[in-house]
Amino acid sequence: MYTWTKLPRTSALFVSALLGGVIFTSCASSRQSANQALPPSAAGGAADKVISSIPQKPEAAPIARSRPQLIKKAAISLTVNSVDQTIDAVSQIINKQQGDLIGLKQQQPKNDNSRHTATMQLRIPENLLESTLEQLAKLGTVNSRNITAEDVGDRLVDFQARLTNLQKTEANLQKIMDRAGSIPDVLSVAQQLSNIRESIEQINAQLKSLQNQVAYSTITLNLEAAVSSTSPQPAFGLQVQETWNNSTHSLSAFSVGLLKLGIWLIVYSPYLLIFAAIVYGFSRWRRTHSPRLTQTPGSSSPD
After folding, report:
1. What is the pTM of this model?
2. How far is CA 133 from CA 50, 157, 220, in A?
3. pLDDT for 27-74, tens place per residue?
4. Which DSSP state fits 14?
5. With b meaning 16 or more CB within 10 Å and e meaning fewer, what string describes 211-228?
6. DSSP 3-state of 241
7. If 0-12 CB within 10 Å is exposed, 13-18 middle and 19+ buried, where does residue 32 land?
């Protein structure tokens, strides 16, 4: 009987220690930089006894710090003779450099004064960025070229340290859950495990995203035709066909217009007939009541 009554108290002690250890680990990971040592915990008591296996200092991240971890982005603008041919040449360069085309936008000339332009988004391995830019520069006349870099080494190490601490905390929580006896204690530890797992997945996704951006650089390539493109003269057959289509369309529109006019005349025909009768009657009346013509001099009057 003593054993069964002692078990809930021991489980409650484990849950209290769990909360203290989780809070301490989260605070230590967020406050300290990735390349600095974490200070030893000042909190003692049951939390240090139960989660004694959680390190007070983050392990070294498995990221080479011999050189900065840079996210490089480049932009280059070229004037070329043919935009379409240049796009094909760029595709060949990308395949050779084991890169990817992640975006393409073309704008055809709208009039004789505009030029054919295109914008391409390229993703190239970081170690091949310089050689790729040199090959792209040979495709035309370089108008502008720039490279920007952002060092994310500290962020990578910080994410790795936080991930390591959370994984060790998860392992200790799993041990506590295995030793917990009552259902409320099990549910409480399970909730903490769920929160820790969600944080691990989020940090792991951010870490992989940064690593991918470091491994692959992006290039924004702007292309512009050297001269304004003039639309070619259509073939004779196309001109004849276009003329025929225009003439048949005009005839159809004229026929429809006449048909509409006839319908209007039919609808208003009673009013037109009345108006015509009034005009005819007025003309007869004028001829009937008009004065007789005067006789010209030298004409003889009838006897």
Report:
1. 0.51
2. 57, 30, 11
3. 444 444 333 333 333 333 333 433 444 444 344 344 445 578 899 999
4. H
5. bebbebbbbebebbbeee
6. helix
7. middle
